[in-house]
Amino acid sequence: MAKIIGCIGTSHVPTIGVAYDKGKQQDPAWKPLFDGYLPVAKWLEEQKADVLVMFYNDHCTSLFFDLYPTFAIGVGKEFQVADEGAGLRDLPTIKGNVDLQAHIAESLVNDEFDMTIFQDKPIDHGCASPLPLLWPHKPDWPGTVVPIAINVLQFPLPTPRRCWRLGQALRRAIESYPQDLRVVVVGTGGLSHQVHGERTGFNNEEWDMKFLDLLEHDPEQLTRMKHADFVRLGGAESVEQIMWLAMRGAMSPTVRKLHQNYYLATTTAMTVVLFEDGATATTSSQKTDEVAA
């Protein structure tokens, strides 16, 4: 059976991809950010992750306000990386596992989530910006991606609790898949940030730290918040944090934080955090004890 071994929360700021493509990993302004991803990439390599399920939002690249779904899942053998105005990136197409994607889609619908299914749609920076920081990509990606888009742009948005429950349903879907796959769930989006209006450039580091602590130890408290609470505390665009709740909902109640990097160099709090799934960690410990005995 497939199993979730961990989860990753990561920013998806488009300039991360631009800086990466321009080779600015050692630039003083960018090095603290890129260095923060190295332990995560190393963990993914050591754990031999087969699949990344990416909760992200499309920034009107493939989905538009005339028909913008609440939840959408990509089902296809490959997805192009979108050209968002700066030209095509030097990245291979994102690979998909159709059998797994279709199984997850069917399982989520049977779990009463009305998913929109998309094919042959390019994936924008919501997913593609952090991806090369997590996985090597030459000559190709080492595994497949399940892209799940969540509406955080056009009201009405799904509630934080609905996103949490989507994550729980995703776990049930993955654990009912018969193939032996090692799955990591990724929640994307910035923490505190606002890029328009009177509060342009707003950040709240204190709230960011509290959110990360609650995400680890008491995520249910976050599910009781309103969208207005996220906006008030972290800025308009920080409502993207509900995608982190979908990620956390896919994990067991107890997780172990392995790494966290927080970098506030621009108008967006850029963060990457890695959690090991508690159930997987317990199983690993039990196996270690059995071997020792």
From TrEMBL:
It comes from the Bacteria. Residues 7-270 form the Extradiol ring-cleavage dioxygenase class III enzyme subunit B domain. It holds the Pfam family LigB. InterPro entries: Gallate_Doxase_N (IPR034939), Xdiol_dOase_suB (IPR004183). This is Gallate dioxygenase. It is an enzyme of class 1 (oxidoreductase). Keywords: Dioxygenase, Oxidoreductase. GO terms for molecular function: gallate dioxygenase activity. Its EC number is 1.13.11.57.
